[in-house]
Amino acid sequence: MSSAWVTPDGVAWLASAGTYPRSTLALWDEQPDAPVVLPCGAAFDVVNTPALFGRRMLDRLWDEGPGSGPVAEYRGRMLLFAAPGTAQRLPTLLEWEEWGSGSRTADIPPLLCHGNGDAVTVPPPAPAVPGAHPRTTRWLVAPDTRHPWLPGPEILLWAAVRAARAAVRISIFPPADQDAKVYDVRRRR
Question: How many CB atoms lie within 10 A of CB 169?
Answer without folding.
Answer: 6
